[in-house]
Here is the input.
Amino acid sequence: MLTRITRRALLAFAGGGALFVCAAAGSAQEAPSAQIVIDNFAFQPATLTVRAGTAVTWLNQDEEPHTVMSADPQMSFKSPALDTHDKFTFTFAKPGTYKYFCTIHSHMVGTVVVQ
Ligand SMILES: [Cu+2]
Here is the structure.
């Protein structure tokens, strides 16, 4: 009898744990995020439109190192040199149009439009 109660309690505990994991995964999905891929010396998409509060992650898929640096003093961000498969994330809190570029290859430019 005692064994049965203990087993039930353990099952209930395991169920609660699973519920907690589901809730955590749900809230992570709701947090707005977007990705820009760096490939072949270009930011893709070149213009990304997101809503305020979105965490934008740049992912370098190129064989060359690149950086991401804001061209707008109102919204300052600068990544270190990103090697292949390195990522850099910046959260855009305020609406606006923000241009950025790669400090290693200044012809590489992109824009994030925050609504
Ligand atoms: Cu570059």
Q: What stands out?
A: Helices lie at 2-30. Residues 66, 102, 104-105, 108 surround copper (II) ion (CB under 6 Å). The longest strand covers residues 33-39.
